Amino acid sequence: MNFPLYIAYRYLFSKKSHNAVNVISIVSVCGVALATLALVCTLSVFNGFQDLISTFFTAFDPQLKIISAQGKVFDGNDERILQLRSLPEIEVYSESLEDNVMIQYQDRQVMGVLKGVEDNFVRLTPIDSILIGRGNLLLHDEVADYAIPGIQLLSALGTSIRFLDPLEIYAPKRGKKVNVANPSTNFVKGNLFSSGLSFIVNQEKYDAAYILTSLDFARNLFQYTTEVSAINIKLVPHANLNQVKQKIEKLLGNDFIVQDRYEQQADTYRIVKVEKFISYLFLTFILVIACFNVIGSLSMLIIDKREDVITLRNLGANNRQIMRIFLVEGWLISFVGAIIGVGLGLLLCWIQQEYGIITLGTSGSFIVDAYPVSVHLSDILVIFVTVLLIGLASVWYPVHSLRKRLVKK
């Protein structure tokens, strides 16, 4: 152990001549530890909410989604698109077409989004995990086309999952001028019958607007032939998502956008990340305030050890070595506080994961009963480095004052 570190270690853990210095040192370590603990727990809770949101989106959104860079639809028979079918990394290739429609059931009308999908959509995502009701996942047969609406949409239409009358779906005719005298001629109408199923994603964006049906019905309603609004892809097991994504982007060029699940829900994830970053900034500011105790502790220690400084100089220690003693002392206070804070934070996160002590309430209106927690190693490293950097910055003033006194003497 080198000389400054050994002396600083003794100063931190040995009894001082004045008890107040011991108390201030303990308070400094506790302040840094509590601020660090708050950072670990808060960022882990935000990670938990982000992971919780992703579990619901993955039941509806594909691993990769290809959309047009310009416009709502593109030709599904484009040569570049057809080349995707031969890629060995792709397990399921499924087309979809969606657009806004007006939905009428008896005397009620709502605006929604009709999404036509292929029959292999059931293999694309774990759609079964969000379906409710009694019935088979059937989108069409020889007689009719069937609907799988969101649960909130059914509520807005005032019907149950098994509605008796068909849903009347209206979409505006493409490329036609509006006939003010007879507005009904401006729309294409189609009927969808009950499949006995509905879905619930626990996100209003889907539950209150979307209807799943067959791709052929959507094309007929929107007056398209081979056009699609998206190509949905599921990769083979153990395929590298980022590598396949880059490969497809290179193949398709700038006319298409390839999105993973996070990019498909960019707005939601962006909100969570912004809130997490703002919380990090606020708690870091609290950490800065806590580190003022380190300044006080170090200043008191310098005063307390004046005679030791004289003794060390008489023994041959130069000014630089003496300054390094107190620099290391301040760093040790921050380091010990960071270790204790991270350790306690990880312990509290584990307790919350296992036992769910802090609940979201007893009303039963939440998806989960307790605050979700997910610890990420990258966050722990960022917190640890932040604490050490702020701790090092906080010791500058007292050590700088000591340097001036040493030079003056």
Description of the molecule:
This protein has a six-stranded mixed β-barrel with strand order 3-4-10-6-8-7. It is elongated, with a radius of gyration of 32 Å. It has helices at residues 3-13, 19-57, 79-82, 121-124, 151-157, 204-207, 215-222, 241-252, 261-264, 266-290, 292-304, 306-314, 319-355, 377-394, 396-408, and strands at residues 64-68, 74-75, 90-105, 108-117, 131-133, 146-149, 167-172, 187-194, 197-199, 210-214, 227-228, 230-235, 256-260. The chain starts with a helix and ends with a helix. It is of the alpha+beta class and 409 residues long. It has 15 helices and 13 strands. Helix content is 51%, strand content 18%. β3 and β4 form a beta hairpin.
Task: Give a short overview.
With 409 residues, this protein is α+β, with helices and mostly antiparallel strands. The protein has helices at residues 3-13, 19-57, 79-82, 121-124, 151-157, 204-207, 215-222, 241-252, 261-264, 266-290, 292-304, 306-314, 319-355, 377-394, 396-408, and strands at residues 64-68, 74-75, 90-105, 108-117, 131-133, 146-149, 167-172, 187-194, 197-199, 210-214, 227-228, 230-235, 256-260.
